[in-house]
Amino acid sequence: MPSLGGGNMDIRSILGSIVNFAKSKAAHTATAPCDGFVLKMHYRWTFFIFLAGFFSVWYNWYHRDIITCVSHFNADTQVRLDYINICLSYPFIEYDDYTRRYLLYYRWIHWVFLLLAGIYYIPRKVSKNVDNPKLRKLIEDLYQNSSRYDQIENQIVEHSVRYIAFNLKTHNGLYYKFLFINILALLIDIFTLYFLDFVLQGYFLKYGFNAYPFERDPRKFTDYMSVMFPPFATCELERANQLTAMREEKLGCHLTFMELYEKVFLLIWLWLIILMTVSIMYIIFILLLGFPFFRKYVLRMSKPVHSQQNVNTIINAVSKICKVGDIYVIYRVKQHLSHARFYELLHKLSNPDHMKAYMPNPIDLHNEKAKALAKNSYDNLRNRKGQPHQQQPQDPPINPEYLQHLLSNSDVVPRGPQHKNQQDIQQRTPLLNKNTSILIE
Q: Which family does it belong to (predicted)?
């Protein structure tokens, strides 16, 4: 039977574009604060695994024979395409007790791959929404310049110390968000395992264990993989199908994709087991960061030759002033530094004099607050138009005796208007009181 669908779609070019895109993304490292290698295994590796499964099955649907059927009444008669279309949706296996198991997943399983690929990208979207821009920029700088040996290496260590010292004891929220995203990724793994078990009618949950040692029965197809993905099935057309002129007809069908499905789902089962194991171990690792003894293990590094202070002393001093979120940030910074540079970073963090140098000056903070208040006052004056004026505070009442004393004092009270007029005339005509003749002078 010819393959269903048109073969005019350039699916190979689509697959090539996806492969090139995957290669370009594979070289990128996780620089977001709430991102990591385990999450990358979910939203990138597993995402592309399901996406590749979708396109591989979709390609075969357009370019391969997906089903071959013959009639039990006359095997030489070519089966109509509308009959085959029904057999694609409702093939079944009939057991000795006349019970049937309909293989409803055969036609739509590749769309399940596309759905799961979208679900596995959820951790990436969540990690982007809870991102810390400053810490992300710091990790990006560390990643880009960690292989350099010039002055920039000293600068990135200095920037790391300045950021950690200035934002000390403020990263607990970041730590709990990162823990939540990893738990979310593990829940997606568990959901995928049980969802595929539901789609495959209860055969997927223990697929790898029951199929071991993967011995096949090519004669009667009684092995577990052939029972789960039977290559041959039966299709029955009844009066309810309205296509057989009110008669019943049985067809024998060869489901050619079952040989592909049994291998693809075995790889998916193995990958999900590995993914869940790694996720559980990494979540335990994140939880252990809350214990002091494990913090010392995370911060431990090889002692450089030029170091004079004991490494354990430095680690104990840093562990005392840091919360669990700060330890997580230092651990992320450690991944991009050498042992010598990481020792330098911890040495500066453990030194109180160095820490004070990175702390903001209280006077500067006061000036910044004053500037902020002045700016807010200016904005309020600009936006006050059209608003009711607030009642201004009135001056306190004046004592009558004090007022009478001021009025009786001649030095305070100005002279009368007659004196003022005479003084004004004298000031305005000062030359009239003198001899102004040029000849006389």
A: Belongs to the pannexin family.
